[in-house]
Write a structure and sequence with these properties.
This protein is of the alpha/beta class. Helix content is 27%, strand content 20%.
Length: 367
């Protein structure tokens, strides 16, 4: 309901794509504007990050996250003045410790505390990274009671259970698969409700002074192609993520259907405070489309993604076609890990006739 409300009041992108199926490379690309990043560190003399660019424009900058991939140790937080890593909660449940994924509430509370400490007219660049919806799919009550059935199932939403399913250590029934989706839905509903409370607080305290961008670093597999979790395929469930821009009193509602990606979002945010780099390797500034002054996103363009956890498999996508190529070391071909593993080296999908990406056309003599 909250994301729908923000989308109805702001600008919603229906075909926005991340450039990677996991947090590290996706977030590095968002902050630097470079795709296909490798390694775990951002070099000290590497490309300027969004935080450094906003800091250089005299913004107060802060990163508040529950994801350890967004931490100083990996270089992603370079340029933020305030960096806060917010842990999850733990409790004893059924004799075993379970991590309660209450990230959204903790992230928003920490953000409001930090905002209250800011004084004067200095503008703010604030990055919040909730771990919802994300494994573990264990949100606090009342969301499990609202969305998860009470019939017996081995599928409890814990990361340990999900990894055991992925590695084929646990056999699951169709009912177990549905139970996993229910746990994920509960986490999504929890995150959405917490976002609503946070936005309402922003409205109350900072009416008219907030531009909010809502997006995600990656999607999640929910048995769409047999697998679970994320990071080891480039099917649509991985790169297809939300994007909306909400700026009350400044932006009219509109829906943008043409494909966009993480690099476009980097350029769009960067353009608020700094000159844009030139060259075909950079994304598109979306402000013309967001404001309704131009339709630059109508120009046809390829969008790319890479999966470092899948031997740096790469994806290229046009409006109609999608190609995935997976490197072939010896016999280790294919996408996926454990459950849902496939064994082709190339995948070609016709997105018009097969939007679910189930018919691999690669290798056929005629299309």
């Amino acid at each position: 309901p909250c994301i729908d409300r923000l989308a109805a009041e702001g600008v919603a992108f229906t075909n926005h794509f991340s450039v990677a199926p996991n947090t590290g490379p996706a977030t590095k690309s968002l902050f630097t504007g470079y795709g296909f990043l490798e390694g775990r560190q951002l070099a000290a003399d590497g490309p300027a990050t969004l935080a450094e660019i906003f800091d250089g424009a005299d913004y107060a900058t802060a990163s508040i996250s529950s994801n350890f991939h967004v931490s100083p140790g990996l270089g992603i937080t370079r340029g933020f003045e305030h960096i806060e890593l917010v842990p999850l909660d733990h409790e004893q449940r059924d004799g075993a410790e379970t991590t309660i994924n209450d990230s959204a509430e903790r992230i928003h509370a920490a953000a409001l505390r930090w905002l209250e400490q800011q004084h004067g007219d200095q503008p703010i660049f604030l990055y919040l990274h909730s771990l919802n919806p994300h494994n573990p799919y264990t949100p606090p009550e009342p969301y499990p009671s609202r969305f998860v059935g009470d019939d017996p199932s081995i599928a409890d939403g814990r990361t340990e259970t999900l990894t055991a399913i992925r590695s084929l250590e646990l056999e699951v029934t169709p009912q177990d698969e549905e139970r996993i989706r229910e746990w994920y839905t509960a986490g999504l509903a929890y995150n959405d409700a917490e976002l609503c409370e946070f936005v309402d607080e922003l409205r109350r305290k900072y009416a008219g002074d907030v531009m909010l961008v809502v997006t995600s670093d990656h999607g999640e597999e929910l048995f769409d192609h047999g697998g679970v979790l994320h990071g080891h395929t480039l099917y649509a469930a991985m790169p297809h993520v939300p994007l909306l821009v909400w700026w009350p009193g400044q932006l009219a509602h509109r829906v943008i259907d043409k494909p966009t990606d993480t690099l476009d979002l980097h350029i769009t945010l960067r353009s608020l405070v700094a000159p844009l780099p030139q060259g075909p390797e950079y994304g598109d500034d979306l402000w013309g489309a967001i404001s309704g002054f131009s339709s630059a996103t109508d120009e046809p363009r390829l969008h790319f993604a890479t999966a470092p956890g899948l031997r740096s498999a790469t994806m290229a996508r046009s409006d109609r076609w999608k190609l995935i190529q997976v490197p072939r070391p010896r016999l280790r071909w294919g996408m996926g890990r454990g459950r849902g593993r496939t064994h082709e080296a190339e995948y070609l999908f016709d997105l018009e006739s097969d939007p679910g990406e189930h018919i691999n056309l690669a290798g056929l003599s005629a299309l």
